[in-house]
Every structure is written in structure tokens, then in C-alpha cells.
Design a protein that fits this description.
The protein contains eleven helices and 14 strands. It is α+β, with helices and mostly antiparallel strands and about 280 residues long. The chain has three domains: about 45 residues, Uridine Diphospho-n-acetylenolpyruvylglucosamine Reductase, domain 2 (2-Layer Sandwich); about 110 residues, Uridine Diphospho-n-acetylenolpyruvylglucosamine Reductase, domain 3; about 100 residues, 2-Layer Sandwich (Enolase-like, domain 1), CATH 3.30.390.50. The strands form four sheets. The protein has a five-stranded antiparallel β-sheet with strand order 4-5-10-6-7. It has a four-stranded antiparallel β-sheet with strand order 11-12-13-14, with helices on both faces. Strands 1-3-2 form a three-stranded parallel β-sheet, with helices on one face. A hairpin with a 2-residue loop joins strand 12 and strand 13. The protein is globular and about 60 Å long.
Length: about 280
């Protein structure tokens, strides 16, 4: 691992200033960053710790607000999340392992832009928004707008995710399912998130694609037809054809296309009849 400067700012403005330098990288949980540094993939000149910025709160007052430095373990154990947004709690139980969840943060998981992560597709389906702070102030974008491609986010070098806002579930029903080729907490070959809101259905796929991607064609077929078996079959076929799927270590493109078909149906069934 190459030598680097370590900075621990006490304010958000100071952190943003420090990130403006060449070779600077933010450090939240560090579970992915440290592995990449050890492998020599990243050689930052400066790590800017976000530990002292006070971004660890979980607030549920109508919408759910999650500070970016909240660990995945804290989110998983939150009573407010389990009561109001149980789909998040269920999804986190198979996200990596408990040791990683106790260190990795929500903001880091989103900013890393790895399409195999579980939270980005689920939060996108839930219509979550991310608040981003930078030199020009704050802006808020849909979570899906954070991603440009494989390990490529739309964040500027000196911008930080500070909070995630998730609308109330209301009468919405939701599910997230994934297929892993080895253990249940391994990287998925496909991840599928579904949110049913009356006649409307929102579907987001990940892992089989280079970023979390809405399946708009499948959504159109499913609108008003969530209980129609013929429509479900058409939607599954549409889902497998409307996105570019690439082969990788987790499976061939043909295999993943079939997984998209199968897991769209399974996730819809789970959303209709969630297991708490």
C-alpha cells in the first residue's frame, strides 16, 4: 500500500475543501476502499475521514432520513426502519456479513457505485433521494441518478452524500431478492427490487447490468395487471430483453437473462405476500 496523508476534518465544509486536492478520497467505512488500496487499484495521496461530521442519524418523521455515515448494521437494527420500511431490514440481512455491516456505511455503499450492491436498486425502487453537499452548496437527486456506469458515479470529486430521504411506504408493498452463485451473502448474479403501489409497479434490476436500471418496459406491461399470469410472463420476457446483460464470473449473459425472467416473477410474488 502506498503512503498517504490522513485527514480527519471536524466540519462538512472542511471535508469538502480537503477533497478538492489531487488524489484525495473520502473515507467512510472503508470496507471497499481499503481492499482496493491493498490491491493497488487505488493509490490516494490523501484520505479524508468523515467520522467526525455527525452524519450518523436515523430519523423517521413521515419520510425516513438516513445519515450517510450510518452503518448498515445500525440501519438493519433500527426499530423505526423495521416498522415503517421492513423491506430494507429484510434486504440487509443477506447483505455481505455482520462484520462488514457493522463497519460499512450507507453513503459509502451508494457512492462506491458497484452494481452488485444491494441497497442502490432497492432504494431506487423506493424512490429514495440523496442529498449531496459540495463547494456550491447542497443538491438532491434520485438515487438512480448517482450512477453513470460500472464503478462510476455522477458525484464530483469534492462532493459528498450527506443524507438519504425515503418516502413513507403508505400502502406500497415492496421486495428485494437476489440470486447468488455461492453463499447467500456473496455478490449476486442478479438483484431485483419491486415496489407495488396500487396499479403502478416500479422495477429495478442490478448486478446483471453495469448500474441499477429501471425495467420500464416490464413496468408498462405490469401496470394494472399485477395478478394477470399472462401479463407476468410478458413482463418477464420484456425485462430480459430491454437491458444489456454481460457475462462475468457470476454467470453468462444467457444465464443472467433467465435469472431476470425468474426473479422478476419471484420478487413480485414476494412483494404481494411479504414474509416479515
Amino acid at each position: 500500500m502506498s503512503p498517504f496523508e490522513f485527514a480527519e476534518p471536524a466540519s462538512l465544509s472542511q471535508a469538502i475543501t480537503l477533497l478538492g486536492g489531487d488524489g484525495a478520497r473520502p473515507l467512510s467505512g472503508g470496507t471497499a476502499l481499503m481492499l482496493m488500496m491493498k490491491a493497488g487499484v487505488l493509490r490516494p495521496a490523501r484520505l479524508v475521514s468523515l467520522r467526525r461530521l455527525g452524519l450518523e442519524k436515523i430519523e423517521a418523521n413521515g419520510e425516513l432520513r438516513i445519515g450517510a455515515m450510518t452503518t448498515l448494521g445500525e440501519l438493519e437494527r433500527s426499530a423505526a426502519v423495521k416498522q415503517g420500511w421492513p423491506v430494507i431490514t429484510r434486504a440487509l440481512r443477506t447483505l455481505s456479513n455482520v462484520r462488514v455491516r457493522n463497519v460499512a456505511t450507507v453513503g459509502g455503499a451508494l457512492a462506491h457505485a458497484d452494481p452488485h450492491m444491494d441497497l442502490p436498486p432497492l432504494l431506487s425502487a423506493l424512490e429514495a433521494r440523496a442529498t449531496i453537499a459540495g463547494p456550491g452548496g447542497e443538491r438532491t437527486v434520485p438515487v438512480e441518478a448517482l450512477y453513470a456506469g460500472y464503478l462510476e458515479s455522477t458525484l464530483a470529486r469534492n462532493e459528498l452524500i450527506t443524507r438519504i430521504h425515503i418516502p413513507p411506504m403508505g400502502k406500497r408493498r415492496a421486495a428485494y431478492m437476489k440470486c447468488t452463485t455461492r453463499s447467500a451473502d456473496d455478490w449476486p448474479a442478479v438483484g431485483m427490487a419491486v415496489v407495488i403501489d396500487g396499479d403502478e409497479v416500479r422495477v429495478v434490476v442490478s448486478a446483471a447490468t453495469d448500474k441499477p436500471t429501471r425495467l420500464v418496459g416490464a413496468e408498462k406491461v405490469l401496470k394494472g395487471n399485477i395478478n394477470d399470469e399472462k401479463a407476468l410472463r410478458r413482463a418477464a420476457d420484456a425485462a430480459s430483453e430491454e437491458v444489456q446483460i454481460e457475462s462475468d464470473l457470476h454467470g453468462s449473459a444467457a444465464y443472467k437473462k433467465q435469472l431476470v425472467r425468474v426473479y422478476l416473477r419471484r420478487t413480485i410474488d414476494e412483494a404481494r405476500n411479504p414474509v416479515h
